[in-house]
């Protein structure tokens, strides 16, 4: 099963989202996903720059997509879904999200395999 995870990073806002991104990245690296995936960083409000590429560069199979920030996170997620319709499963993270335990993506995959292909959320 091909899995893609999407993290929205607002480039707008004079760096106010940097602390949230650092928290997400610390937990992403501290708690392995437990399942292979592609990582997509949606750069909301600006093109990915060198700082953003450095910040997120160690994520698994990472790539960057520019989004114009219309509709904020939800439209970034919609664009990511539209451009990655080949994925069997996608997991979306807003800028304030973080991870709380190892094997988190494997648990998502297990839930999908057990309960079927649908929308899951918090």
How would you describe the overall organization of this protein?
The protein is an alpha/beta fold and 122 residues long. It has helices spanning 18-30, 50-56, 72-83, 104-115; strands at 3-10, 38-44, 62-67, 89-93. Strands 3-2-1-4 form a 4-stranded parallel beta sheet, with helices on both faces. Strand 2 (38-44), helix 2 (50-56) and strand 3 form a beta-alpha-beta unit. The chain starts with a strand and ends in a 7-residue tail after the last helix.
Write the layout of secondary structure elements.
Layout: E1 3-10, H1 18-30, E2 38-44, H2 50-56, E3 62-67, H3 72-83, E4 89-93, H4 104-115
Question: What keyword list fits this structure?
Answer:
122 residues, alpha/beta, 4-stranded parallel beta sheet, 4 helices
Could you give the order of strands across the largest sheet? 3-2-1-4
Strand content: 15-25%
General form: globular
Mean pLDDT: 92
Q: Distance between the terminal alpha carbons, to the nearest Å? A: 22 Å
Number of strands: 4
Helix and strand run: EHEHEHEH
- Give unreliable regions as ranges: none
Overall helicity: 25-40%
Radius of gyration: 14 Å
Return the structural class: alpha/beta
Give me the number of helical elements: 4
Characterize the biggest β-sheet. 4 strands, parallel
Structure, briefly:
By secondary structure, the chain is an alpha/beta fold. The protein has helices spanning about 20-30, 50-55, 70-85, 105-115; strands at about 5-10, 40-45, 60-65, 90-95. Helices cover about 35% and strands about 20% of the residues.
